[in-house]
Amino acid sequence: MGHYDESMPDPLPEFTEDQAAPDDKNKTDPGVHATLKSLSSQIETMRSPDGSRKHPARTCDDLKLCHSAKQSGE
Question: Which position among 6, 8, 64, 74 has the lowest Cβ density within 10 Å, counted as fewest Cβ atoms?
C-alpha cells in the first residue's frame, strides 16, 4: 500500500467544510431524493420487520424485539 501504481485511479480530492457545503447553484435532482427516501424505507423495514409476508422477520425473537406489543399469532 505504500507505493503509487499508475494503473490506480487518482484519489478523491479533499474538501474543506466551506467547499463541500451545498449552495444554490447546485440544484439536486428530485429523483435522487425520492430514491434515497425509498431506500431508507426499505432499510428500515429490514431493520424492523413486521412479520408480514412482504416484510417477514428472520426469527420470532427478531419480531419480538421489533414489535414487543404484538400478541402471538398476529
Answer: 6
